[in-house]
Structure to design on (226 residues):
């Protein structure tokens, strides 16, 4: 089954404790991205990657890091989480080219206390 | 600076009637528009899209209309069904470059039996 998976689905952590949210897709897509969803703000892009070893900032990259060492994986790293990073996070992927329809993972609900 | 706006946070419609969800955008460079549907505890799923060279696109019960001069698009669902109850996001993109999706805030649609 073609899908984007994220782990963990739910996470409660404390300020400053480094964490990683994993994202993996099995569709051989070149393009992957991370979004956060907040009430009244919709989905905002954090980082995206056009292909392996090619990443770039989205609209709200502060406090986040990413890496793309393999085509299928695109982990999101929070080196020192803060309460304002409490949010619902989505990973998405799509093939390169004129294909705008992104496939989203199920989401990771993160709470930073 | 919200480039894509959905001004109605919620909409309630009776089953069998038409649901109309609206979206406005400010960036005249956008040339591709999409609607996504999101159920609780799931990621958004692609619903329908439209290129700026068209003013209408239909897919079954779903029709998207684009008014470029007004920078406005709408999603019509006819007839509305209980399974259509979800949050709907509109998104816009520019064909050239990174083809980033910019999302609106979302509209929660409730279909009442």
């Amino acid at each position: 089954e073609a899908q984007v998976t994220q782990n963990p689905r739910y996470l409660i952590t404390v300020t400053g404790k480094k964490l990683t949210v994993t994202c993996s897709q099995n569709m051989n897509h070149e393009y992957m991205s991370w979004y956060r969803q907040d009430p009244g703000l919709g989905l905002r892009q954090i980082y995206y990657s056009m292909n392996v070893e090619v990443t770039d900032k989205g609209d709200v990259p502060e406090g986040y890091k990413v890496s793309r060492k393999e085509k299928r994986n695109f982990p999101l790293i929070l080196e020192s989480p803060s309460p304002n990073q409490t949010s619902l996070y989505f990973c998405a992927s799509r093939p390169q080219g004129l294909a705008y329809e992104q496939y989203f993972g199920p989401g990771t609900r993160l709470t930073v206390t | 600076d919200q480039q894509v706006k959905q001004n109605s946070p919620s909409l309630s419609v009776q089953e069998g009637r038409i649901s109309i969800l609206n979206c406005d955008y400010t960036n005249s460079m956008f040339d591709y528009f999409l609607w996504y549907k999101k159920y609780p505890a799931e990621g958004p799923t692609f619903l329908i899209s439209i290129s700026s060279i068209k003013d209408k696109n239909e897919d079954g019960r779903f029709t998207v209309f684009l008014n470029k001069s007004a920078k406005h698009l709408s999603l019509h669902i006819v007839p509305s069904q209980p399974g259509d109850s979800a949050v709907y996001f509109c998104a816009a993109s520019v064909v050239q470059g990174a083809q980033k999706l910019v999302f609106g805030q979302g509209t929660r649609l409730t279909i009442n039996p």
